[in-house]
Amino acid sequence: MLNRYFIKLIIRIAIFIGTLGIYILHKDWLVEFMTQSIAMGVTPLHVLWLIFMIMMLYHLFPHDKLSMALRKATKEVYVEVPGYSELELLRYVQNQNRKAWIVMLVWLAGNCVIGGLHLAGILDVSDLLMISVFFFLCDYICILFYCPFQSCIMGNKCCVNCRIFDWGHFMMFTPMLFIKSFFSWSLFVTSFVVLIHWELVYAKHPERFWSGSNQVLQCRNCKDRTCQVKNRIRRMWTNKPWKADGEGR
Q: Which of 67, 59, 64 lies closest to 227, judged by CA?
């Protein structure tokens, strides 16, 4: 899984560099691509839109090639910890919900600034698109190297245990809300559906999301190992191994 993530990171870097090149050399092309109908010809951004939509559909219908960070929400992979404390689970859920609300408020506040700059005429459509592609790249940087939400707010030990892991697409496409286009609004709406789906499953089955009640989320049972690079970076800065809930890599 770690190797897959690095391959996907390289692909995202290529997409970011390609979009940035168009943004620098032909900024007006991005505006035309976003507003042009498919009937007038398929553009690179139409292909990128299709890739984004397929990615989000995968999240709504997860399969065994995806990370446990996503699949933990499904019944098929849940392995109950015998005799887990429902009171501790409730405390965990309350704590994580409170932190998740903080993340959401911080994210929306930041994007309100972006929207305000767009309404004021400082940022145009191409700027908003470039910001979304940058968020697209940052999603995997957060998974593999450093996540400010994990470190500063959520405090989860890894992405597999992340309460808000499937918020990624909603965060990527929040700037798309300010662009009046079928392509932009369809991305935002679909990402919102993914977010709501995740939250409904979490509300109904919180035991699937806590390592104290789901054995597959415990470090000794983890097969993804997507935290390896991030943990090495953390150890370099703190000179201490990362541990949480009595576990460690």
A: 67
- Coil vs helix vs strand at 80: strand
Give the total residue count for the chain.
249
- Residue 165 is encoded by which pair of tokens? 């892991």
pLDDT of residue 40: 64
Q: Which two tokens stand for residue 154?
A: 């959520």
pLDDT band at 248 (very low <50, low <70, confident <90, very high): very low
Report which of 53, 55, 70, 48 is spatially closest to residue 133, judged by C-alpha positions.
48
For 72, the token pair is: 């933990």
End-to-end CA distance of the chain: 16
Which one is predicted more confidently, 233 or 164? 164
Sign of dihedral through CA atoms 128, 130, 136, 137? Answer: negative
pTM for the whole structure: 0.88
According to DSSP H, which parts of the chain are helical? 2-25, 27-35, 44-60, 68-71, 86-119, 125-144, 148-149, 168-173, 182-204, 228-238
Rounded to the nearest 10°, the torsion over CA 101, 103, 104, 105 is 90
